[in-house]
Design brief:
Oligomer: single chain
Strand order of the largest sheet: 1-2-9-10
Distance between the termini: 31 Å
Order of helices and strands: EEHEEEEEEEEH
Shape: globular
Number of helices: 2
Low-confidence stretches: none
Length: 125
């Protein structure tokens, strides 16, 4: 895949947001990273996380402790940690969120955040 600038689609409803849909593939993850990183966003693969029993949280070698409140939400309904096809997006100074295949990553006034495809389509018809 070439290292060219990504042009996200622009959507408008109650304000303007840019969004890219994560397809759950390596090329899709690269596309999102190439879009987010030049704009100051942080994104990495969820399978890079290590569980730290002593802290009761996830740890990333580059980003430190990563608290993921949605880590038990899996599309197939089972309970457990993030799977190999999820991404982690930094949504605030010390906040992170999981991006599941099919979800959209949005860039709004407050930064980057994920939104499920169902919620995205209901908001941006």
């Amino acid at each position: 895949m070439s290292q060219t600038a990504i042009a996200p689609k622009k959507y408008k409803r109650r304000g303007s947001v840019e969004a890219v849909q994560y397809e759950g593939t390596g090329p899709s993850a690269v596309k999102i990273a190439l879009w987010m990183r030049p704009l100051g966003g942080t994104v990495f693969a969820a399978d890079e996380l290590l569980w730290r029993h002593d802290f009761g949280s996830f740890y990333h070698p580059e980003h430190g402790m990563v608290y993921l409140p949605g880590a038990t939400r899996n599309p197939n309904g089972r309970v457990g940690g993030p799977g190999p096809s999820e991404l982690v997006v930094k949504t605030g100074p010390s906040a992170y969120a999981l991006v599941f295949p099919g979800d959209f990553v949005l860039r709004g006034l407050s930064g980057f955040y994920p939104l499920s495809a169902e919620s995205f389509h209901s908001l941006h018809r």
